[in-house]
Specification:
The chain has helices spanning 41-59, 86-94, 98-115, 131-144, 158-164, 175-181, 222-234, 248-263, 294-299, 311-319, 331-353, 364-376, 381-400, 407-424, 429-456, 460-472; strands at residues 6-9, 14-17, 25-30, 63-68, 147-150, 153-156, 197-202, 218-220, 238-244, 268-274, 277-279, 282-283, 327-329, 475-480, 483-488. Strand 9 (238-244), helix 8 (248-263) and strand 10 form a beta-alpha-beta unit. The longest helix has 28 residues, at 429-456. The chain contains 16 helices and 15 strands. It starts with 5 loop residues before the first strand and ends with a strand.
Length: 489
């Protein structure tokens, strides 16, 4: 088990060597989706980021409990504890029961996650299944003096909390600035301060998702669920809490306040946040109307798309950038990712066909070390990919006869690619290919066979025409001693 794996801790704002609380066990909690709509490209970013982390910790030998929650109640339309519940709003518009909406979009989300080849979490708790635990958590906050009730709703007293602990340490928000800059919003007059946040909301007449409580018939606040479920399944102190950068404030900041207020100490040792996917420099989000669902990406059915993109192309596209940097959507970028992925898989195909020599002229151990150094450096997937493409270059050079690999090094290189491409990066050549790619391969075999027949008959005009027309279509033929290979430009 390696001990030099570093991650960037959003709380300390620096890279730290990952040292789990109770090795060989490691606990991860990631904020999952609010299931009121189909998953879009922006949802793929945290899913793939923390799948990469999960995969690598498993590879290092840790026994990982990966908890990813499902928000199915309490997430209102704005962060000021006002507006309609997002799931209830969808239920009203689609004439469905709220839990029917949840189930429908959970099914789609899980299907999309399978398509992206993300590993299933160890536990996937739902907020609505932990109402009692959330109520007990609120009672604990009352005992500690950080909760107050107004008209059946319960709020967290941020000012009082800040007297003993520092509110804003994760996001860098200063409470004094929040006091001066936060305007009063309609419906917030019952709060002591506008920046206090809801722990429990009294349900309005006609509200569908509501439960009895000591304070009112109502529902839990959005922030409360994650504190409650993370502590329930990972303990009062656990290793890693993750999510999108847009959750740092107010969601994760409120989580820290709730958990610290209830326990008297922080519960999370490392905070990790992935950056956003943008379109023309603006965050991709349903609320902004600039989103593309994953189903639309996979079938090409969106006016912004020039073509369909396979799930593995999307995964590769996201892995090409470091998780803490933004990724800007464009067809050009996705098409470049598609070509890069094809080049990587083509290298793997060539590797399987190579025949070893008696000697090696390529240092596979050095390549392996560079790959580990990259992923150990805060999951630096783009640098890792650059080294894997360095390996593809070696493979092509061995195939061309300009470099040599003995049997031991060839097995080592195969193991290296299998480990990093499939096990850690989670790229799946089989799912990338699919029926369309299989059909393409079969058609290419037929075309190459026709060209070979023409060459045998010395009909070089037809042979050259086939080669030239394929080149115009972006397919390159390579005549080799043992047959013909083809690749996309």
């Amino acid at each position: 088990m390696q001990n030099n794996f570093t991650i960037y801790n959003s709380l300390s704002r620096q890279k730290e060597i990952f040292k789990p609380l109770n090795p060989p066990f490691a606990g991860i909690y990631v904020c999952g989706p609010t299931v009121y709509s189909n998953a879009h490209l922006g949802h793929a970013r945290p899913a793939i980021t923390f799948d990469l982390l999960y995969r690598y910790l498993l590879h290092l030998g840790y026994k990982v409990r990966y908890v990813r929650n499902i928000t199915d109640v309490g997430h209102l339309e704005n962060d000021a504890d006002e507006g309609e519940d997002k799931i209830e709003k969808t239920a009203r518009l689609e004439h469905l029961e709220p839990m029917e909406v949840v189930q429908n979009y959970m099914n789609t989300f899980h299907r999309n996650m399978d398509q992206l080849n993300t590993l299933k979490p160890s536990i996937e708790p739902r907020a609505s299944g932990h109402i009692i635990e959330q109520q007990e958590f609120i009672k604990l906050l009352f005992e500690k003096g950080y909760a107050y009730e107004v008209n059946g709703s319960v709020y967290f007293d941020v000012l009082k909390y800040n007297q003993s602990f520092k509110y804003g340490k994760l996001s860098g928000r200063v409470l004094e600035e929040l006091q001066s800059n936060t305007r009063e919003l309609e419906g917030q007059e019952e709060k002591r301060n506008s920046f206090d946040f809801a722990l429990w909301k009294k349900a309005s007449p006609g509200h569908l998702m509501k439960w009895p409580s000591p304070w009112s018939e109502g529902y839990p606040g959005w922030h409360l669920e994650c504190s409650t479920m993370s502590i329930k399944y990972l303990g009062e102190v656990f290793d890693i809490h993750g999510g999108g950068m847009d959750l740092q404030f107010p969601h994760h900041e409120c989580e820290i306040a709730q958990s610290t207020g209830a326990l008297g100490h922080e519960s999370v040792r490392y905070w990790m946040h992935n950056n956003m996917i943008t379109i023309n420099g603006q965050k991709m989000a349903r609320s902004l109307g600039n989103f593309i669902t994953l189903d639309q990406l996979f079938n090409g059915d969106h006016p912004m798309l020039e073509q369909a993109y396979s799930p593995m192309t999307v995964r590769f596209f996201i892995l090409q950038a470091h998780y803490r940097s933004t990724v800007d959507f464009s067809n050009e970028a996705l098409q470049a990712a598609e070509k890069g992925l094809q080049r990587l898989f083509k290298g793997l195909e060539t590797l399987e066909k190579l025949k070893p020599s008696g000697i090696s002229t390529v240092d596979i151990n050095d390549l392996r070390k560079k790959c580990y150094d990259a992923i150990d450096d805060d999951l630096n997937s783009p640098v890792l990919l650059s080294y894997l493409f360095e390996g593809v270059k070696y493979i092509n050079q061995v195939n061309d006869g300009t470099e040599k690999l003995n049997a031991e090094d060839m097995d080592s290189l195969k193991n290296l690619f299998h480990t990093f491409v499939f096990d850690i990066l989670g790229l799946n050549a089989g799912s990338e290919s699919g029926r369309d790619e299989k059909l393409t391969g079969e058609l290419m075999d037929i075309i190459i066979s026709l060209r070979q027949d023409a060459r045998v008959k010395k009909d070089f005009a037809t042979s050259d025409k086939i080669r030239d027309e394929l080149k115009k279509a972006g397919v390159i033929l390579k005549d080799r001693k043992d047959g013909v290979e083809w690749e996309k430009e």
